[in-house]
Amino acid sequence: MDAMTTTEAGATAAPSEPALEPVTHGYHKQKDEHLKRLRRIEGQIRGLQRMVDEDVYCIDILTQVSASTKALQSFALQLLEEHLRHCVADAAVKGGEEIDAKVDEATKAIARLLRT
Amino acid sequence: MDAMTTTEAGATAAPSEPALEPVTHGYHKQKDEHLKRLRRIEGQIRGLQRMVDEDVYCIDILTQVSASTKALQSFALQLLEEHLRHCVADAAVKGGEEIDAKVDEATKAIARLLRT
Amino acid sequence: MDAMTTTEAGATAAPSEPALEPVTHGYHKQKDEHLKRLRRIEGQIRGLQRMVDEDVYCIDILTQVSASTKALQSFALQLLEEHLRHCVADAAVKGGEEIDAKVDEATKAIARLLRT
Amino acid sequence: MDAMTTTEAGATAAPSEPALEPVTHGYHKQKDEHLKRLRRIEGQIRGLQRMVDEDVYCIDILTQVSASTKALQSFALQLLEEHLRHCVADAAVKGGEEIDAKVDEATKAIARLLRT
């Protein structure tokens, strides 16, 4: 995954950079909140495994799936808002062609969220 | 949970059966496949936590959120199909008012999936 | 469109059948209600055209798009409920392989609704 | 944020414009394309009415509902992209508090699209 490659970059970049703003991507400050949300979703998915394991009634499992999906969408919206506020707005201020690329990229991400 | 009460119902309804399958709810046979799917989704959610922790680019995180949401919807559809094939079809065969209740319940579950 | 080809089929099939219940498909009795709903959605789409034509603010147009999409989904759920109650339940009562085909078909239709 | 520093770029650009485009809202130039799309969707909704009227099989109607919903979502995405490219980007360039309001507004519109 792409994500994995950034691991090393982030790990080595953090100490070497002059501590201005090492890695931002918009969602930096909300990191703790995001991790808390994701741990809660992980708990919901483990709850689903327990439900299947204990032969809980299908409809009750489906209700829990809907709740987990909603929590994931909520997390995505939060991330998207921060992305628009920081990355997209920054590109607009910088001017040039980057704003087009950023808007195109954001729209495609929204399309993927809508189509799931 | 409500689900637990249905267990007894199933157990007492089954006397003609050789008591081999005490609780079915349709998805019984696919249990292993369901658990495997859910464990994979749990892995995806943990992957999301790693991505946030390592300040991966927002759009890449959103792509992973879309994949997890799609996997959850896929699991829901599988469950729903088994529910229709077993619980709803059984209610139809039994006749009486139960089919109306089952269809109503299934439709509401589908509405919840659509609205998330 | 597929729909159009079915028109002729429906038109020619009707007289040949023993006029007991010429065409049912579950949603027969709710036909007037369905047509009313659809005419309201058609009005919403024409409203969208007016909004675009009068350069209404994008966000207000998007709000109206969401309302129309919700109305379409609501119509789909109503139709689906009737389909489950009649066609799927009938297939279950008849027994045989038809129930599998019907459940498979219904699940695919639900998947299409979820993926839009 | 960073956006504030480049505010001047926007400030100098603003007075130079000869006020030729009274109402833009981003989607101005694509107006004809939008109207064409919407008329096509209107045709699909009228097709649905014909299908219901002619007692077409429920599943075929549901397929057409999915197609219409997808067309509406597609229109919304197009509108949203133009909104981000123009209104949101403009607010970012202007600086001040407007960008927060615009991003908040856009995120809520996306949430409404996701929840339908």
Round the Cα radius of gyration of chain A to an integer and report it: 18 Å
The ordered H/E elements of chain A are: HHHH
Low-confidence stretches of chain A at least 5 residues in length (pLDDT < 50)? 1-23
The structural class of chain A is mainly alpha
Number of strands of chain A: 0
Largest interface pair = A-B, 58 and 60 residues
Number of helices of chain A: 4
Mean pLDDT of chain A: 81
The major sheet of chain A is characterized as:
none
Oligomeric category: homotetramer
Shape of chain A: elongated
* Share of helical residues of chain A: over 70%
Distance between the termini of chain A: 20 Å
* Share of β-strand residues of chain A: under 5%
Please characterize this protein's 3D structure.
Four copies of one chain form a homotetramer. Chain A is mainly alpha-helical and 116 residues long. Chain A is 80% helix and 0% strand. Chain A contains four helices and no strands. Chain A has helices at residues 2-16, 31-53, 58-94, 98-115. In chain A, α2 (31-53) packs antiparallel against α3. The longest helix of chain A has 37 residues, at 58-94. Residues 1-23 of chain A have low confidence and may be disordered. The interface between B and C is medium-sized, with 24 and 23 residues.
